[in-house]
Amino acid sequence: MRQAASAAPDGLTIILSSESNHVLLPLLDASFPLDVTKDFVPVSLSGQFQHTLIVKRELPVATVQELVTYLRANPGKLSFGSSGVGTQAHIAGEYLSLLTQSKMVHVPYRSSPAALNDLLAGNLDINFQSMPAVRSYVDSPRLKMLAVLSQKRLEELPNLPTMVEAGFPDFQLSSWMGIFGPAGLPDDIRQKLAGALVKVGKNPELQARIRGAGIEPVGSDAAAFAQFVDAEQKKWKTFIGRTGIKLNPS
What we know:
This protein is α+β, with helices and mostly antiparallel strands and 250 residues long.
């Protein structure tokens, strides 16, 4: 990211970044070396994918409401996993505890697949996983999928409710990837890059390949992406601030 930030703003150097690198890390880590709002300009949102709330099959719940009741009745007895401190799944788990006034034990794993495998084995109670990671388990009896963390239900899973429907209107989290350029990138070059990316993103064959990986292709102009990034920064700042999670606190 440093190389991209310090590159000449001539359109020859751009970077594909994500919510983890461009939003979460700067908010979580007081020693993060860049000011992403000043060092980069948004160009185009490339793709987005959703996350789900899953529980092990042995857990005696079938809905988010039942999970909340069970959590409150068993404080500190249930575990939730993540791929490490400060990751989306960690923040989501702590935020769920906060919103439901319950307590869970956080178990950080080395990776998301490791957490998923432990849940499938019955060693982990709760997990937040991306749709690409769990799409093959949609109809599997090996886990229970309780909700999707999007604003609306997914077309591919019309029977899976959202956290919004479960009574948590602010519980909307997604992962995304987008193109950024170094600060000072002239607007005409920025718009030209965005237009080219949108055009490429409309290719049916490319869209099919992206959707095949569980990612929804977007393609947006620079202004829309800038608004999106601003909203993401405000949302995650609220989540992180309320949970108190920090990396390398100052």
